[in-house]
Inverse folding.
C-alpha cells in the first residue's frame, strides 16, 4: 500500500507540474508543428555589423543624428534595407542609391560573421525531435545559402530561404507553410525585432521574440513573450511535443503593427537573462519625424 500511495503521489505531482508548465512557460509552444527562424540577429551574429554600416550611411546621406539613425534602423529591422529606407526617409530621392550601397556591403559582412554559439545545437535538437525548420531572411538568398553551407547549418534546416525580388520575408513564410502542409497557427516564428513580430502576424504565424543578454532588446515595452537563447527555445518546443496535457488551439498574440508605428517605440535596451513577456510602456514620440 505504501508503494502504491507513493506511486499515486508521484503521478499527481508529475501531472500538476505538467499542468503548471502548460498554463505558464510552455503555453506559447503547445501544438507547434514547425518552426521558422529569422536569420540575421537570431541565427547569425550579423546585426551589429549591419547596424554600423546602416547608421554610417543614414547619418552621411540623410542628415540624421547617430542616435536617431540607430533607433530608426533597429525599429524597421526585419525588412530589406530598401523597404526600411522608404519608412526612414519618407521616399528620399537618393534612397535607392543608398540601399544599393548597403547591399553591396552585405556580402563582405556576411562572409566575416558566424552563427551564434547556441544556433547549431538548437537546430540539431529540433531536427532530432522531427520538427521542420525554415531559416528565412531579408538578406539575399544566395548569401544565406553560402553562409549555412560554410557553418554546417544546411543539413539541419528543412528549408533555407532569403530575399529576392518580389520574395519578401512574409512571402517566404506563406510559401513554406503551404509546402509543409501545416496550418499557419501551428507554426512558430522566432525573430529578434518588432518588425519580425508584425510579419509573423501578417502571415498568421505565432511569434516568440529572442532577446539575448548583452544585445539590444527590441521587445522592451511590447508585451511580447521572449526567450533569451535558442537553446531554451528548442527545449521548450521539444518538451511541448511530449506533454500529456491536452489543450485547445493557441494562436499568436502579437498585435498588428506597421514599420511607421514601430518608429514611435522606445529605443533599444539591454535585456537581463530572464524569460517573460515584455511589460507595455508608453511610447516616446519621434522628434525627428512626423508621420
Amino acid at each position: 500500500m505504501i508503494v502504491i500511495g507513493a506511486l499515486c503521489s508521484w503521478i499527481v505531482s508529475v501531472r500538476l507540474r505538467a499542468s503548471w508548465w502548460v498554463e505558464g512557460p510552455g503555453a506559447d509552444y503547445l501544438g507547434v508543428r514547425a518552426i521558422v527562424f529569422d536569420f540575421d540577429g537570431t541565427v547569425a551574429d550579423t546585426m551589429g555589423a549591419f547596424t554600423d554600416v546602416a547608421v554610417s550611411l543614414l547619418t552621411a546621406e540623410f542628415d540624421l543624428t547617430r542616435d536617431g539613425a540607430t533607433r530608426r534602423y533597429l525599429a524597421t529591422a526585419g525588412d530589406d534595407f530598401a523597404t526600411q529606407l522608404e519608412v526612414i526617409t519618407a521616399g528620399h530621392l537618393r534612397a535607392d542609391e543608398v540601399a544599393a550601397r548597403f547591399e553591396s556591403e552585405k556580402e563582405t559582412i556576411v562572409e566575416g560573421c558566424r552563427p551564434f554559439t547556441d544556433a547549431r545545437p538548437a537546430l540539431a535538437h529540433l531536427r532530432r525531435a522531427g520538427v521542420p525548420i525554415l531559416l528565412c531572411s531579408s538578406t539575399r538568398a544566395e548569401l544565406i545559402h553560402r553562409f549555412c553551407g560554410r557553418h554546417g547549418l544546411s543539413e539541419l534546416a528543412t528549408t533555407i530561404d532569403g530575399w529576392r525580388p518580389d520574395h519578401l520575408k512574409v512571402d517566404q513564410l506563406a510559401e513554406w507553410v503551404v509546402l509543409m502542409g501545416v496550418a499557419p497557427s501551428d507554426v512558430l516564428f522566432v525573430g529578434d525585432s518588432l518588425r519580425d513580430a508584425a510579419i509573423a502576424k501578417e502571415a498568421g504565424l505565432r511569434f516568440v521574440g529572442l532577446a539575448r543578454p548583452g544585445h539590444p532588446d527590441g521587445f522592451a515595452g511590447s508585451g511580447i513573450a521572449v526567450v533569451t537563447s535558442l537553446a531554451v527555445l528548442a527545449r521548450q518546443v521539444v518538451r511541448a511535443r511530449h506533454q500529456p496535457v491536452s489543450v485547445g488551439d493557441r494562436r499568436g498574440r502579437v498585435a498588428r503593427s506597421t514599420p511607421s508605428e514601430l518608429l514611435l517605440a522606445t529605443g533599444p535596451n539591454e535585456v537581463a537573462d530572464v524569460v517573460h513577456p515584455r511589460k507595455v510602456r508608453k511610447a516616446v514620440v519621434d522628434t525627428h519625424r512626423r508621420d
